[in-house]
Amino acid sequence: MQQKNLALVLGSGGAAGNAWLIGIVAGLAEAGVDLTTADLVIGTSAGANAAVQIRSGIPLADLYAATIAPLPPRPQGPGREAVPPRMDAVFVRMREISAAATTQAELQKAMAAYALERDSSFGPEIADQRRSVVAARMPIQQWPERRMVIVAINAETAETVQFDRNSGVDLVDAAIAGTALPGAGPSHIINGTRYMSGGIRSAENADLAAGYAKVVVLAPLSGRTGPLPEGQFEGLRRPPGADLASQVELLRSQGSHVEVITPDDASRAAMGINQMDLATRAPSARAGFEQGKREVRRLGWL
After folding, report:
1. Using CA atoms, how far apart are residues 182 and 114, in angstroms rounded to an integer?
2. Alpha carbons 28 and 38: distance in angstroms, whole number
3. How far is 18 from 33, CA to CA, in rounded Å?
4. Strand runs (DSSP E) across the chain, as ranges?
5. Could you say which DSSP state residue 285 is in?
6. Is the distance from CB of 167 to CB of 121 less than 8 angstroms?
7. CA 271 distance to own-chain centroid
8. Cα dist. 16→116, 208, 236, 238 in Å?
9. 225 Cβ neighbours under 8 A, 6+ residues apart
10. Contact between 124 and 38 (Cβ < 8 Å)
11. Which of 143, 230, 250, 268 could bond to 165 as cystine, CB 3.0-4.6 Å?
């Protein structure tokens, strides 16, 4: 198999994970390793947002500075961002689905059915608001020249989809689809088809980097000694083959050199127990930045 050079995989992890990813990549660059030049960047869920940021062409130092900056006040009033729904019932249902699934295909089908079932509970204004908010937060709205993939799931067929610049899909739409959490909001409609987060398939989707000589996986949700507390979407049980260890083993068996970076103790402490808490962004990014500088020495990259 003819292999390409470097693929960068950015895993899911909520607001904390997104910030940690930016911090890690910026810290690595500070220490002399620039991953923004990777031949391929694969983003899943929060990692999809980070992929758009990293591929934007904006200097990493500026991305990092923006991530640790105080958050602006949440917009208020008609036409502004909707108040996020209470997630307790959503997480309970998703955990029930993941506990019952025996294969990844079964999990995706059940999650897709749940997403479509919940769609009727959201008015059309929710989708409009979400698009406005996502578009406003994206540093670019056109696909970059260097290859970038956003992973999503077709909610009607439960099949995995890899959106890229050749998909004929607007980048904003791809980003919304790739982060559409079942039950938390409506699945995202593109050309009449409904899509949901690629995090349902895998928290990292590292196996999609097959064929690359080197694969660097940044996994905000891996490396913990125990599961995330109840109420965390990213803590769903993964059937065999969908877990990161299985995907890394597959890549290595195909000849790829794979390095995995997960949050160290300081980063895990900064990320806390609620991955979706926006208050974790600045501390997670700072901890990731410092960890990134240490990882260069640990991995012997210089």
Report:
1. 7
2. 13
3. 19
4. 4-10, 40-44, 147-154, 160-163, 188-190, 193-197, 212-218, 257-261
5. H
6. no
7. 15
8. 28, 24, 17, 21
9. none
10. no
11. 143
Predicted TM-score (pTM) above 0.85: yes
How would you classify the pairing of strands 160-163 and 188-190? Answer: unpaired
Evaluate whether 290 touches 27 at the Cβ level (below 8 Å). yes
Residue showing tokens 């410092």: 290
Please list the residues that pair with 300 across neighbouring strands. none
Q: What is the pLDDT of residues 43-74, one digit of tens each?
A: 999 999 999 999 999 999 999 999 999 877 66
- Eight-state DSSP code of residue 136: H
d(CA 41, CA 186): 26
Question: How many angstroms separate the CA atoms of 169 and 173, rounded?
Answer: 7
| Burial call 33-68: b when 16+ CB within 10 Å, e when fewer | bebbebebbbbbbbbbbbbbbbbbeeebeebbeebb
Query: DSSP code of 227?
Result: P
Helix (H) or strand (E) holding 18: helix 14-30
Contact 29, 35 (CB under 8 A): yes
The yes-or-no verdict on residue 186 having pLDDT over 80 is yes
Neighbours of 228 (CB within 10 A): 17
Cβ atoms of 79 and 176 within 8 Å: the answer is no
Q: What is d(CA 297, CA 287) in angstroms, rounded to the nearest whole number? A: 16
Please report how many Cα atoms fall inside a 13 Å half-sphere around the Cα of residue 97, on the Cβ side: 24
